[in-house]
Write a structure and sequence with these properties.
GlcG_carb_metab_protein; PduO/GlcC-like_sf; Heme-binding protein; PduO/GlcC-like; globular; alpha+beta; Beta-Lactamase; single chain
Length: 138
């Protein structure tokens, strides 16, 4: 499976549905390609304005660092590193960014969610990543 614009739009809808069903609140959600470039984005009505950029940076960070943003945050804390050491102002260590890998394990893109508690943002990206990995998309 490859990440297409149509697939990315489906993933956006899946994420928005999960946000409302599980948390009852709106989100911003970004899907990036395998380079971290934004492929598509949506801000649900009522989602915080600050979450626009945060969701995009979460997706970008996951792809650039090769791990979910919660894992990246743990690395920074464990090694007592400042994020600025990476010399990339596009990075964020806020949980809620994840890699999208197909069934073969190939990284095909990234997803970032913002607008909820960071653990809730992260859970939505994990859900989307699992769907992509299982190639369980209608």
């Amino acid at each position: 499976m490859e990440l297409t614009l149509d697939l990315a739009r489906k993933l956006i809808e899946i994420g928005k549905e999960k946000a409302i069903k599980d948390f009852g609140r709106p989100i911003c959600i970004a899907i990036g390609d395998d380079s971290g470039a934004l492929l598509t984005f949506d801000r649900m009505e009522g989602a915080p304005l600050r979450s626009i950029r945060i969701s995009q940076q979460k997706a970008y960070t996951a792809i650039r660092m090769g791990v979910s943003t919660d894992v990246f945050l743990s690395r920074l804390q464990q090694d007592n590193l400042e994020i600025s050491y990476y010399c990339d102002p596009g990075l964020t260590a806020l949980p809620g960014g994840n890699l999208l890998k197909n069934k073969a394990g190939k990284i095909i893109g990234c997803v970032g969610v913002s607008g909820l508690a960071v653990s809730e943002d992260q859970s939505i990206t994990e859900y989307i990543a699992k769907i992509v990995n299982e190639e369980n998309i209608d």
